[in-house]
Design brief:
Blueprint (H helix, E strand, L loop, with lengths): L29 E5 L5 H13 L8 H4 L10 H9 L6 E4 L13 E6 L2 H12 L4 H8 L12 H10 L11 H13 L6 E5 H6 L1 H12 L8 H7 L2 H6 L25 H5 L2 H12 L4 H8 L5
Parallel strand pairs: 1-2, 1-3, 3-4
């Protein structure tokens, strides 16, 4: 199949953005587009709570809001499960918006998080993935990944990495590509940017903002229960991890490791932080960096 122009075709051993090319959108669809460990599951959960107006989900989060690009489930099964949903659908992707069909009937939510904090969470997340199970589900050979170095060394390497951002999205260049593309579209009527730190600082207010942008009513009688269900603590206690019953995560509770900000910046020495700032300044506009990093030392 030929991609709808001018979409980029993003692929990895686990993902294929081409699965979006013939996806049948319908009015009200909500697409959550993020880099890994930037608050994807959190925003999926918030959107489902707002759509269903209940703190109790009728199914596992990963089944209600599937990762459409993920190769662990046949595309036809994912499409059929979404087609059977009578409510507004919430769909996950790690594909930047230049690789997803932009349908006027849908809303696209892009979540930003400080790249260093995202990177630290991603470092720990990699050790929680059962690679054998992934290979079994995707039908590909199990990848023998090199042992991860200590966290500080790995984070310095994350900052220094140079290569094709579109080929390796979970890198600093890939992160800035994803966010820069969304930033350039931020004035589009159906593109919404959400910052991870805003969810941390004011979950109630952030949820009200999203409800307004999505055109969803706020029932004040039910609202406190919805906000409680969306807290990091509630999601971790219920182990509402995104893989459903697929067994890709070794420990679903460990998926919700910390839920805080600042860890990445605290790990780097002043000279290393200065180098990081030089790197991102060459990758993204100043206004995006001001919104994204919120670093009082800059």
């Amino acid at each position: 199949m030929v991609p709808p122009t001018p979409l980029w075709h993003y692929t990895s051993p686990d993902e294929d953005s081409g699965r979006w090319w013939d996806f049948p959108f319908r009015a009200g669809d909500i697409v959550v587009s993020t880099r890994s460990k930037s608050g994807t599951t959190w925003v999926q959960m918030i959107c489902l709570l707002l759509v269903l107006a209940s703190p109790e989900l009728p199914d596992r989060l990963g089944r209600l809001s599937p990762w459409l690009d993920w190769l662990v489930e046949p595309k036809e099964e994912v499409f059929a499960r979404l087609a059977a949903q009578a409510h507004r659908r919430v769909i996950k992707t790690h594909t930047p918006l230049d690789g997803v069909p932009l349908d006027d009937r849908a809303t696209y939510i892009v979540v930003g998080r400080h790249p260093l904090d995202m990177a630290v969470s991603f470092y720990h997340h990699r050790d929680n993935i059962d690679r054998g199970r992934m290979a079994e589900l995707t039908g590909q050979p199990e990848r023998d990944l090199p042992r991860q170095p200590p966290l500080h060394e790995w984070l310095v390497g994350f900052v220094d990495w140079e290569g094709d951002a579109r080929a390796w999205l979970d890198t600093l260049p890939g992160t800035m590509l994803h966010l820069s593309d969304a930033w350039a579209r931020r004035h589009d009527a159906n593109v919404v940017l959400v910052h991870y730190d805003d969810l941390l600082a004011d979950l109630d207010g952030s949820m009200r903002r999203l409800a307004g942008l999505l055109g969803l009513p706020v029932d004040e009688a039910r609202w406190p229960a919805l906000v409680r269900a969306a807290t990091f603590e509630s999601m971790r206690a219920d182990a509402r991890a995104p893989d459903g019953d697929l067994g890709v995560l070794k420990d679903p509770i460990a998926f919700f490791r910390r839920g805080k900000s600042g860890e990445g910046r605290a790990l780097l020495q002043p000279g290393e932080m200065a180098h990081y700032r030089d790197r991102v300044a060459a990758m993204a506009p100043d206004d995006l960096l001001a919104w994204l990093e919120r670093d009082p030392e800059v």
